[in-house]
Amino acid sequence: MAQKLEVKYGLPEKVEFCSRCVMSNQRPSSTAEFKHNIESKKTTLHIDEEGLCDACKVAEQKETGIDWKDREEKLLRLLEKYRRNDGFYDCLVPGSGGKDSALQAHILKYKYGMHPLTITWPPILYTDYGYNNFKNWIDVGGLDNISFNRNGKVMKLLTKLSIENLFHPFQTFILGQKNIAPKLALKFGVPLVFYGENESEYGNPIADNSSSLRDKSYFAMNNLDEVYLGGLSVKELMGKYDLDLIDLMPFLPASYDDLEKSAIEVHYLGYYLKWTPQEAYYYAVENTGFKARPFRSQGTYSKYNSIDDKIDDLHYYSTYIKFGIGRATYDASQEIRNKHVTREEGVELVKRFDGEFPDKYFNEVMEYLDIDPDYFKNELSDNFRSPHLWKKESGEWKLRYKVWDI
Amino acid sequence: MSKCPRKIAIIDYKSSNLFSVQNACDYGGLDATITSDKKCIKAADAAILPGVGAFADAMKKLKKLDLIEPIKAFIHSGKPFMGVCLGLQLLFTESEEFGLCKGLNMIQGQVRKFPLQSEDGKKIKVPQIGWNKITKTNDSDGSPLKNVVDGAFMYFVHSYYVEPADNTCILTKTNYEGIEYCSSVLYENIFATQFHPEKSAQNGVEIYQAWAETFVS
Amino acid sequence: MNIRIIPRLDIKGPNLVKGIHLEGLRVLGKPEDFARYYYENGADELIYADVVASLYERSSLHDIITRTAKEIFIPLTVSGGIRTIDDIRDVLSAGADKVSLNTAALKNPEIIEKASRVFGSSTIVVTIEAIKQADGKYLAYSDNGREYTGVEVLGWAQKIEKFGAGEIVITSVDNEGTGKGYDIDLINMISNAVNIPVIAHGGAGKLDDIVDAVNKGDADAIAVASMLHYGFVEKNKTDKSGNDEGNVEFLKRGGKNSRIKTADLSEIKQHMIENNIFCRN
After folding, report:
1. What is the DSSP string of C133-193?
2. Can you tell me the distance from the alpha carbon of A248 to that of A158, in angstroms, rounded to the nearest whole number?
3. Which positions in chain A touch C243 (Cβ < 8 Å)?
């Protein structure tokens, strides 16, 4: 009788793959990042008895179950309500000039006649082509922008802590990205904020998809006690690292009460306009001077998704370690749902690229964060591997379940 | 099923471009088969010698496959014979390639290489790859080019060109970067082109049919 | 010299696709429809590029090559995933006239020499996918503009000629699909470094771009994709029926490319003639 294997993070014990895309049921749904600590139990992707995952169901709906003309009408009515022609902004679009925010901001301004202010929480470490894309977004695309440059020392500290405690290199970026626009909306009195795609297109519970509004729990807090950054509570952080509350404020969401009292609405543009990520790439090249990465992203096959932050590659490496899901799996699953590639092709891509170690920027990132590269690659990574996913064979770590084995 | 071509043998000496010649013949309704069998070649009513690549290499292959004598015999028999590109060049006496390399010597003359520079010092790209005009020199009413307009464009791929000893066999001339050269010949039962009729669009591919019409009653 | 205009068709499975920076698989229609149209309207040659062959380590253009060779009588060059002498033989037997190598040649340049010997120099083309680096140098990439090799393009072009290839296609990955024009510096550098013909590829967005590639870039032939393909889509009701495979969103919404001034082959050749460039017409 085999010994029962430990299952970390509250993941499902049995590994299953969607029969249509290549995603597994180990994929965690998006959460309120500021509540995330090591004890957090993940909600994961649901795969039904027929083997179909929720994200594929949403994709099906997108294709056949939605009247997009009607949705666009709804958008026009919404915009009509908020459009201002008195020389002030009528909506905020968070983003950094990647293909998605490029499309969102540009289309709102140039097709729908709105007056967006783009809001950027900059990458932790800009790639040079990523920075050029950001500049072109503003200069070629023709948009106003506010970039919030947070305290670099605090950013470094929190990023390091989130890696060491949660193996989550991207937490500080996500915190900023998800919180800043609603907070600035409050400050400027701009009541409309647009994000791009609803996360349910990627596997968040389907119920999330029925409204155009982003659930407030993602970007609002009730009180400081519920907040964890880098895996530590606010109190612990302030005490241990000699920080003031103001040092942490940029990473914190707006207060739930303040948002309730205001008239601010946070919408998904993807609810109103059919979102095809690859077409966003074409749009961005055509309209905002976007350029793909001049080489293949490590861990996957594509060149244009999430390319402006050097720590990005590490983020996908961490998901591979924690959940057995690498960058190629994310990319291929999305492209399968959009029918750009077949499942067979997706499986080939995962087999070839998933889990490829991102060495291009690794040393630079480790140096920036003052983490020993060997410690990261070995001891730290291994700490976060869930035994129900990984086994060691001849001194090498291997996934127990692979999508191409099924 | 007999493997011998009933009408036209496309001589296979392991050079490239056999299939495009076959396709062109099929398109023109010609009864043509690719073969390297000497008996089949001998028995055919007409033969085509295609070819792409190096002269010396081709002569070696022809020798190895023991096709040199059969080809010469076929030509001597007076039956219609068509050569394309390298197939034209091989008919000549010798080529400049690798010193001097002997050819089949069915038509007297040399095979010369395009220079890398024109007389006024301009760089010349070699091989010539692309379309060029053929200018009819001799009377071509009875030739396979009778339906082709003077100055029509044909597709060429070659680094060498033929220089017949006797000008009267020159059917068309072409000018590449200031060098005027022979682009097709008509000599007794031989019709041979430097250009690729099977790659020269409708104008070109119909030449195969026109050639067949000169001997099929 | 008569300058050739060569439509380049990127193919994935049953579809003609068109990317930007050799990335993205937007479907524009069926390759056979485009090929036939271009043949009937003055294309000098055609290039079929299997854009996912290297990615999936498979070559799958066999059928379309055979069908094309039976009814389209201009030279056809096939590229994508050609790795060995046997691969070349297969593609040529299927009906192609030339093959283009990239990834295989970068990994093992001797294959150029061997292939040229076996099949003839003029049958072997090598494509260089160039990306300009921050320091201004151009480097060659493999696997459809994906993998860094560190190989500098100028030296590589000279090596390709030395090993016996008949032609070079020089692709600017930076400009490809953007419509911002050919990379004239790149083309000029390569064309003047070798004695074999050089085919310019990547970036044509208006008629003058083609003239510049010849007059300023010294290109011997021009490969065009976006300008012609988007033009074809505009003018023809491409068959959208029953086509569910691939990124068909652009076709479904009747999209138009705003960055590219589309043109057809006769417009291109007319413009060339007006600018004193010889071509088949």
Report:
1. -TTS-EEEEETTTTEEEEEEHHHHHHHHHHTT-SEEEEEETTTTTT-S---HHHHHHHHTT
2. 9
3. none
What kind and span of H or E run contains A118?
strand A116-120
Contact A207, A284 (CB under 8 A): no
Hunting for tokens 């959460």 — which residue is that? A31
Nearest-CA distance C215 → chain B (Å): 14
Inter-chain Cβ pairs, chain A and chain C, closer than 8 A: 72
CA proximity to A100, closest of A339, A281, A336 = A281
Question: Rounded CA gap, B66 and B59, in Å?
Answer: 10
Partner C contacted by A301 (CB < 8 A): yes
Q: What is the DSSP string of A27-94?
A: PBPP--GGG--TTPPPPB--B-TTS-BHHHHHHHIIIII--HHHHHHHHHHHHHHH---SSS--EEEE
Residue of A nearest to C24 (CA): A278
Instruction: Tell me, yes or no, whether chains C and A touch by having 3 or more C-beta pairs under 8 A.
Output: yes
Residue B3 pLDDT class (50, 70, 90 cuts)? very low
Q: Does A390 touch chain C (CB under 8 A)?
A: no
Q: Which residues of C are catalytic?
A: 10, 129
Task: Give the integer Cα–Cα distance in Å for B15 and B62.
Answer: 10
Give Cβ neighbours of residue B18 (< 8 Å, ≥ 6 apart): B10, B12, B34, B50
Task: Quick: pLDDT tens for A66-125.
Answer: 999 999 999 999 999 999 999 999 999 999 999 999 999 999 999 999 999 999 999 999
Whose tokens are 């593609």? That residue is C91
C-beta atoms of C147 and A296 within 8 A? yes
Contact C247 A345 (CB under 8 A): no
Helix, strand, or coil (residue A117): strand
At C164, list the tokens.
């016996």
pLDDT tens digit sequence for A131-161: 999 999 999 999 999 999 999 999 999 999 9
B46 in Cβ contact with B79 (< 8 Å):
yes
Average pLDDT along chain B: 92
**pLDDT tens per residue, range A2-34:** 568 899 989 999 999 999 999 999 999 877 788
Pick the residue of C4, C39, C74 with the most B CBs within 10 A to test the interface with B by mutation: C74
Q: What are the pLDDT digits (tens) for A195-229?
A: 988 776 676 766 566 677 877 777 777 788 888 89
Q: What is the ipTM of this complex?
A: 0.93
Contacting partners of chain C (3+ CB pairs under 8 A): A, B
Q: Quote the strand ranges of chain B, DSSP E.
A: 8-11, 32-35, 46-49, 81-84, 94-95, 101-102, 109-113, 128-133, 135-136, 153-158, 160-164, 170-176, 179-187, 190-193
Question: Average pLDDT of chain C?
Answer: 94
